[in-house]
Amino acid sequence: MTDYERVLEKTEQHLIALKAAGIRFLGVQPETLAGLHEPVARPASLAVHQPLAEPIRAAARVEEAVVIASPEGLKPAKDKEAAMRELREKAMVCQKCPHLAGSRKNVVFGVGDINAKLMFVGEAPGADEDQAGEPFVGAAGQLLTRIIKAMGLSRETVYIANILKCRPDTPGQSSGNRKPSGDEMKTCLPYLLEQIELIRPEIMVALGATAIEGLLGKTEGIGKLRGKFQVFRGIPLMPTFHPAYLLRNQAMSEKRKVWEDMLQVMEKLGLGISDKQRGFFLKG
Ligand code: URA
Ligand code: URA
User: Fold this and answer.
1) Which ligand lies nearest the alpha carbon of 63?
2) HSE-up of residue 81 (Cα within 13 Å, Cβ side)
3) b or e along 46-67 (b: 16 or more beta carbons within 10 Å of the residue's beta carbon)?
4) Domains, the chain, ranges and CATH?
5) Which of 15, 70, 194 most suits a substitution to test ligand 1, by most atoms within 8 Å of the C-beta?
6) Residue 230 burial (CB count, 10 A)
7) With a 6 A CB cut-off, is 184 part of the ligand 2 pocket?
8) Distance between CA atoms of 1 and 4, rounded to whole angstroms?
9) 18-44, pLDDT tens digit by residue?
10) Ligand 2: which of 107, 123, 210 to mutate, judged by most atoms within 8 Å of the beta carbon?
11) Residue 46 pLDDT more than 60?
């Protein structure tokens, strides 16, 4: 057995052990899996004994193990749809936060294509979203929709969800928002994690500090993190400002920052970018 085969076998055993321990989600970058198909550089002395097809077969073995460890990743389309429907039905009747269940008009589960390559994650529904049962339909949502369109995409071709599925209650007020509490985020997060696991987007965008805190547990501030790809469970995650921030701060410089973050996302998705798109918000 070569060192390569020993590592391969250990890797395979490790993945099977993870699967047995109930792990369903693996942080493996698609590039890493693809990399396994590349022939490995090996000492000339070994090369003689190694048929060229070996790395390919080896890659297939690890991939197989990853698939075993991560069945959600390869759910047939029908199962995925059914699983998402089931999850939505569960969320629609959720009573885990009695104060929110008591004050909400609607649970705001998510909207878009469950096969989307790009997923946006916001904070929580506001009054408009609570009323409509759909995320990002109020003023901030309309700005997000324009940003998505400027990227050459649409609300129907991406997926949009929030950290919280219920509007944080603001007793005695019909408008206004409050930040979700830590407990509310912790309680609701499993729904979002399951959505992410089912959708398995290629890239995610976290809108604002609460989304970053919920997903990455980072509280160092969106100003520091934005524009730099993070990784969430193997998925590249771009933190950017929340559109509500852009509504409060109308400066061209801030719009441009968000737009530059979206250009990075488009580049990573392999979307074509026109000169016009590159130039948005560069001058008034
Ligand atoms: N998410 C993961 O956790 N792993 C992958 O390989 C891709 C997405
Ligand atoms: N702000 C959010 O974070 N999410 C919404 O759905 C609407 C406004």
Assistant:
1) 1
2) 4
3) eeeeeeeebbeebbeebeebbe
4) 3-68 (no CATH), 77-278 (3.40.470.10)
5) 70
6) 16
7) no
8) 8
9) 666 656 566 665 666 666 666 555 544
10) 123
11) no
